[in-house]
Amino acid sequence: SVISCFYYIRFVKIMYFDTPKKWILYKPMDREKSLLLAITLFLISFFFLYPSPLFLVSHQMALSLCL
């Protein structure tokens, strides 16, 4: 309990009160990676909001393995 308290207080101290030792510089993303990220995000969002097609395909695949 005391050990976990020390750990979490240290974590909060590092997150909010310490200055970063090194600045992170982000490079611009090229077109191919951007397109791949957009397609992946769309598919994940689609199957999260409407999972029925994925369930139907996996059900058909399972049935084809059984027969």
TrEMBL record:
Asked if Membrane is a keyword of the record, the answer is yes
Instruction: Specify the protein name.
Output: NADH dehydrogenase subunit 2
Q: Which organism is it from?
A: Goniomitrium seroi
Question: What keywords tag this UniProt record?
Answer: Membrane, Mitochondrion, Transmembrane, Transmembrane helix
TM regions (residue ranges): 35-57
